[in-house]
C-alpha cells in the first residue's frame, strides 16, 4: 500500500496539555508519526511518497473562512503580545454567553477551541496544512486508480469541525479528503471512524448531507471524551437524516468471540436505535459494531471509503479504555477490505507510542492480505 508522508508534521510539537488537573507533556507528539513511518518501512508495506501542495481551496470546502484565517494568523498575534509559549484557551463560550467573535486573539482562541489540549504553536499552521495535503494527495492517488492509500496524517483531524479545533486536531484531514473525492466526481463517499474517540468534527461537517455517510465506533460519550457528541440517537439532520451512525461502546471491557457477533450483526442492527451497547462490551462488541457499520456502508452504495484510523482502541493506550490487542488490528484491516472499496486511511489517534507502529501497520497489512 502506498503511504503519503510529510516531515512537516514535526512542526506541531506542543509542550503541554491539561490532564487530571496538571500540565503534562502532549500525548500527541512527533514521535507517534516517526514510529508509524518506521513500522511502514520495517514491514515493507510499500512506497512512501511526499504530498503535493493543494493550497487553501480544498480546506475551505469543509472549514469556515474565518476559522482558517484565525489559524493562519493566531501564532503571529500571540507572539505580538510578547508571548513565546504555546497558545491555549482558558475559557469557553458556554451557555448564555454572547456568541460574537472576540476582537482579541486571546478571546478568539477561546472561541475557536473545543478544549485546552490543542496548543497552537509556531509551526501549527504549516503542520496542519501539511497534514491536509497528505490527505488530499492520498485522495488524488485513489482517484488515480490506487486501491488503497495510507495518508500518514499528523496532527490528526477528526475532532476539528467546520469552525473549531480540539482534541489535538486543527483541520479535519479525513473530511477534507472525503470532500475532495466528491469534488473529483465520486457520488457517494463513506467515512468510517474507528478511533477510540467520537469523530465529532467529521459528524459536524457532514451532518446535514446525504452524499457523505459518517459512521463512528467509539467510547460512550456518557463517560468518554468528547462528552458532548457521539450518542447513538444522532442520526443526521435534514437531507442528512439517516446518514450518520454512532456506535458508542461502554468503556472498560473484556475479550471474547467476535465471530459470534459477526453472525448476529444483521439481526442486531436494529438494537443500535437509541442506546449504547451494554457495559461489559469487549473486543467482540467492537467487531460487532464494525459489522453493523460495514453493513451500512454497503447499503449506502459508497464509491470510496475514508477510514479515520485511530489505534487508541489498543488495550495499552494511556488515555483510552478499549481492549484491542495488536493482532486484533490485523483482523480489523481484513474486515475493512471485505467492503471491496477504494480506501483511504487517514491516521488519527493512538498514544501508546511503542506499539503504535505495529498496530497501524497491522491494519494496513490485514487490509492488503485480502487484496
Ligand atoms: C484525540 B483523538 C484536554 C484533552 C483531553 C483529549 C483526547 C483527544 C483524543 N487536555 N483529552 O481522538 O485520539
Ligand atoms: Zn482518539
UniProtKB/TrEMBL annotation:
A Pfam short name: Hist_deacetyl
Family of the protein in this entry: Belongs to the histone deacetylase family.
The keyword Secreted is assigned to this record: no
Cofactor: Zn(2+)
Organism: Chromobacterium alticapitis
TM stretches of this protein: none
InterPro entries: HDACs (IPR000286), His_deacetylse_dom (IPR023801), His_deacetylse_dom_sf (IPR037138), Ureohydrolase_dom_sf (IPR023696)
Ranges where the Histone deacetylase domain occurs: 28-365
Keyword Zinc attributed: yes
Keywords of this entry: Hydrolase, Metal-binding, Zinc
Name assigned to this protein: Acetylpolyamine amidohydrolase
SUPFAM superfamilies noted in UniProt: Arginase/deacetylase (SSF52768)
Amino acid at each position: 500500500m502506498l503511504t503519503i508522508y510529510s516531515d512537516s508534521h514535526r512542526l506541531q510539537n506542543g509542550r503541554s496539555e491539561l490532564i487530571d488537573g496538571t500540565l503534562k507533556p502532549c500525548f500527541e507528539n512527533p514521535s507517534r508519526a516517526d514510529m508509524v513511518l518506521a513500522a511502514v518501512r520495517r514491514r515493507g508495506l510499500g512506497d512512501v511518497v511526499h504530498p503535493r501542495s493543494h493550497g487553501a481551496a480544498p480546506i475551505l470546502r469543509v472549514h469556515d473562512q474565518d476559522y482558517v484565517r484565525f489559524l493562519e494568523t493566531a501564532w503571529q498575534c500571540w507572539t505580538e503580545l510578547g508571548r513565546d509559549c504555546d497558545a491555549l484557551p482558558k475559557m469557553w463560550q458556554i451557555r448564555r454567553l454572547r456568541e460574537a467573535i472576540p476582537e482579541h486573539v486571546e478571546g478568539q482562541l477561546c472561541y475557536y477551541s473545543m478544549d485546552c489540549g490543542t496548543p497552537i504553536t509556531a509551526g501549527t499552521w504549516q503542520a496542519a496544512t501539511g497534514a491536509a495535503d497528505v490527505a488530499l494527495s492520498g485522495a488524488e492517488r485513489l482517484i488515480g486508480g490506487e486501491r488503497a492509500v495510507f495518508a500518514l496524517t499528523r496532527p490528526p483531524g477528526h475532532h476539528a469541525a467546520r469552525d473549531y479545533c480540539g482534541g489535538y486536531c486543527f483541520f479535519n484531514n479525513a473530511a477534507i479528503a472525503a470532500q475532495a473525492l466528491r469534488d473529483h466526481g465520486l457520488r457517494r463517499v463513506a467515512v468510517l471512524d474507528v478511533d477510540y474517540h467520537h469523530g465529532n468534527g467529521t459528524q459536524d461537517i457532514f451532518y446535514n448531507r446525504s452524499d457523505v455517510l459518517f459512521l463512528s465506533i467509539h467510547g460512550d460519550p456518557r463517560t468518554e471524551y468528547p462528552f458532548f457528541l457521539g450518542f447513538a440517537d444522532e442520526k443526521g439532520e435534514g437531507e442528512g437524516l439517516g446518514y450518520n451512525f454512532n456506535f458508542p461502546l461502554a468503556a472498560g471491557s473484556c475479550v471474547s468471540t467476535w465471530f459470534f457477533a459477526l453472525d448476529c450483526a444483521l439481526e442486531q442492527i436494529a438494537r443500535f436505535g437509541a442506546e449504547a451497547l451494554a457495559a461489559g462490551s469487549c473486543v467482540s462488541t467492537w467487531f460487532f459494531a464494525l459489522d453493523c457499520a460495514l453493513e451500512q456502508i454497503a447499503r449506502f452504495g459508497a464509491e470510496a471509503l475514508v477510514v479515520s484510523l485511530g489505534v487508541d482502541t489498543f488495550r495499552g493506550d494511556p488515555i483510552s479504555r478499549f481492549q484491542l490487542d495488536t493482532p486484533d488490528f490485523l483482523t480489523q484491516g481484513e474486515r475493512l477490505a471485505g467492503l471491496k472499496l477504494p480506501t483511504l486511511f487517514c491516521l488519527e489517534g493512538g498514544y501508546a507510542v511503542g506499539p503504535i507502529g505495529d498496530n497501524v501497520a497491522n491494519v494496513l497489512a490485514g487490509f492488503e492480505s485480502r487484496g
